[in-house]
Write a structure and sequence with these properties.
The protein has a single domain, classed as Jelly Rolls (Sandwich). Helix content is about 10%, strand content about 30%. It is built from four helices and 15 strands. It has a 15-stranded antiparallel sheet that branches. It is globular.
Amino acid sequence: MRVRRPLLFVVGPLLVSACALVADLGDRTLGEVDASADDGGGAAIDDGATAEDASVDQATVDAVAPPPSYCEGIVLYASFDVTLAPEHGGASTLSLGGVTQSPQGRFGGALSLVRDAGAQGEGAAHYILKGDAGDAGPVWPEDLGSVSIWYRAVPGGAPNPVLYRPVATLPPDALATAGLAFFVTVNGRTGLYQNGADNIFTFPVSAMTPYLRSGEYNQYFAAWRKPDGGDVPTAYIAINGGLGVDYADSGASYPDAADDAGELDVPYRGFTRQPWKSQGSPVALRLGGPGGNAAEGTLDDLAVWNRVLSFEEVAAVYLAGQALGDICMLR
């Protein structure tokens, strides 16, 4: 197994705030959770204090409490609760094929994709479009960024589903890529591709499956850094917080990588230094795809950052148990 240098992501003790969900992460986690929060979540009230005093004090605390670090740098957010348009970032949307809004999401509503053989491209694709200069901002930062999305697949879906792909062109023009795509399955592998044939950072589906909840929502995280010829990671991945929780009796064991030179390469968390390239600048972020690339199922709580999140932050997002729109006040 290849191992990593602690360059950008330090796999250390995971600190989760008093309001976060504290979980037993097991032997293959990012580290121990700091559960030293006080019992009451705030200062004690004197016997003579009134309920109104307590209310004012708590309101003051809530007003000055800083948001979690993972709220910094979000340039695109879509909850899909009542509409397919994003609440933060993006200018407009374009849907092709079986694309609808569903009330059954991970947090409230969701984007539902069902492959439509009668539609253009015989698929289901939802595009979040970039605005004009100075408009809603980028939907996909070119140089570096991160993305998190929750996905629940329907059984027997399309053969090579892709969760998302940044694109440099829109239909009916031929596809031009604008960054890495996340394929749920293609050629028996799962992970990041620059097109349908060239994998950048992937794992066998059989190795990934034990770390996914079958029939339920799973969190898919990835990040990217434009290759510059230096010895730095270029692509990152984390599944269900990157915590390494095995939901199946796989018998496999992937201990945390040693602090050494190389790459971190385990099915639920890792990074690579392999270079990749785009075919143009992003004009949209496509969810799902045409033909066999339609990710049949529901997608929820999409967020894109203009920076690379640490593995600790990814785990905190996963463990929060709330929509990012609520935690980071994006709607």
